[in-house]
Write a structure and sequence with these properties.
Blueprint (H helix, E strand, L loop, with lengths): L1 H19 L6 H85 L9
Helix pairs in contact: 1-2
Length: 120
Amino acid sequence: MYGFKMIAASVIALTAFIGCSAKAPTTGDYMRMHAADEKAMGSDQKQLAKNWDHGSALKKSGEKLVKHGEELVKSGDKDMMTGRNEIEQGNKDIIEGTKLAEESERMFHEKYPDLKLDLK
């Protein structure tokens, strides 16, 4: 965009300069105008190419981030499932262990009523 503004400004300035002079523009004047336009276009084209390179690099970087993020989510989902299964199994083990311990203590008291289990 800066390049096009520069072209427009140079064309306006040259037109004003030519308009103020009494003689018609020479071939050299046209060559200079063309050179100024080409210089501005070249500068603009270089900026566009630079922007394209940067955009292309961002795109590649973004694709890598998305792929890695998807892998992390997939891994996280697997970890969450494993965690849920472990919690569920842990709760089952706690319930079963509590029942077994209480049943063992009850049976001990029934079979050996004179023996105490606490060390007081």
